[in-house]
Design a protein that fits this description.
- This protein has 373 residues and is α/β, with parallel strands linked by helices.
- The chain folds into three domains: 2-201, 3-Layer(aba) Sandwich (Rossmann fold); 203-242; 247-372, Zinc Finger, Delta Prime, domain 3 (Up-down Bundle), CATH 1.20.272.
- It has helices spanning 9-20, 38-50, 64-70, 94-103, 109-115, 127-137, 165-169, 189-192, 205-216, 220-230, 234-242, 247-261, 264-274, 279-302, 311-320, 326-344, 349-364, 367-372, and strands at residues 27-32, 77-80, 147-152, 175-181, 196-200.
- Helix 7 links the parallel strand 3 (147-152) and strand 4.
- Helix 13 crosses helix 17 (349-364).
């Protein structure tokens, strides 16, 4: 329900008005940053739309539609999301999906894919899934006035999205698409042009703080520290409560030290182990690396320790200040972006990350040349 969604009051009000004024678009795109709550908003809007006794601000929570929608078992509400496997469809993973939503509707793609056993496979939304969507939405409604499809992360459609263009543009009567996305640039322009977009901004630190206190019942002091580091990502805040330092943080800092030392045996040993963690985890690792470097740049430019890094990460960043210059940071960020591109295209991880490690070593060792200049 809307009352369970952290913050985002302006977006909530906009979605309510769409329903109240009978102006709900047949294709709505909720575009938000990770952990902003765009999926939670899509779920709340769906329940509000189907509720038989809704008020001006909220679904009743008691009618037959609310009971089924809140458990994600309503026969007129369909879900589509990334899966693994050439012919996989979302219906094969509905039990895991319902459990994941009940546990954390702010989850990210990596968490979901690891939950369904992706391991070394990349997620995608398949041709068979698109065919299944068209088939389901062509049927009559079972219990309500609307058929609703919530598609989480349409970025994973790729070119298969062309199969949905016609039904998105000319859907059957009372059919609504709610697309929940994070990266508009990865979605086909032909799909974007058929949707009404609503932007969901990152949560404020205060919203994350109040959400943690409300949902996790933790002391305000601890919630304040976590909320500041989460940078508007409620899912990240939840993960921080479970781990003092994230696995990716420790892994990245250890890798950076090995690259700086330049010991070939150590780098090869690290790459051998790292290549087995799976492509989705490798992309997540690179995303963390980009986050660390962005915060390091802020620290370097402002000399202000109030950056979004935890204590151990901040100490490492401060130790690197005399070693890594901004030009080197820029080169590493470009390298990590390229590396992410190659991981997504199934490059050999051992070759790719050994080469990346060697390049990072060369970038870090340029300090002498930069100092002379």
């Amino acid at each position: 329900m809307f009352q369970n969604v952290i913050g985002q009051e302006n977006v909530k009000q906009l979605l309510r008005q769409m329903v109240q004024n009978d102006r709900t678009p047949h294709a709505l795109l909720l575009l938000g940053t990770p952990g902003s709550g765009n999926l939670a908003l899509a779920l709340a809007m769906t329940q509000y739309l189907l509720c038989e006794n809704r008020s001006e601000t909220e679904a009743c929570g008691e009618c037959r539609h609310c009971h089924k929608t809140s458990k994600f078992i309503h026969p007129d509400v369909h879900f589509s999301f990334p899966t693994v496997g050439t012919n996989a469809v979302s219906d094969h993973f509905l039990n895991q999906w319902r459990s994941a939503l009940l546990n954390n509707p702010y989850l990210d793609a990596n968490q979901w894919l690891q939950l369904i056993g992706a391991e070394n496979k990349q997620g995608n939304i398949t041709k068979d899934e698109c065919v299944n969507i068209v088939k389901k939405l062509s049927l009559k409604t079972f219990e309500s006035d609307y058929k609703i499809l919530i598609q989480w992360l349409p970025e994973y459609l790729g070119k298969e999205g062309n199969r949905l263009l016609k039904i998105i543009e000319e859907p059957p009567a009372n059919t609504i698409f709610i697309l929940v996305a994070e990266q508009a640039e990865l979605i086909l322009n032909t799909i974007l042009s058929r949707c009404q977009m609503v932007k969901v901004n990152p949560l404020s630190d205060e919203d994350v703080l109040e959400g943690l206190i409300q949902k996790k019942h933790i002391p305000r002091e601890r919630a304040e520290a976590v909320a500041y580091l989460a940078a508007g990502n409620f899912n990240e805040a939840l993960q921080m409560l479970d781990y003092e330092e994230s696995d990716h943080a420790n892994l990245f800092l250890d890798w950076l030290r090995k690259c700086y030392k330049g010991n070939g045996v150590e780098m090869v040993t690290w790459v051998e182990k790292f290549s087995g963690i799976g492509r989705e985890n490798q992309k997540h690792f690179l995303r963390y690396g980009l986050h660390f470097l962005r915060e390091y740049m802020v620290l370097k430019l402002t000399d202000n320790a109030n950056v979004r890094l935890r204590s151990k990460e901040l100490t490492t960043a401060q130790n690197l200040l005399p070693i890594i210059e901004l030009e080197q940071v820029e080169q590493m960020m470009n390298l990590f972006n390229d590396c992410t591109f190659y991981v997504e295209r199934n490059a050999n991880p051992k070759v790719l990350f050994l080469d990346t490690s060697i390049q990072v070593n060369r970038i870090l060792k340029k300090k002498v040349a930069l100092s002379i200049r």
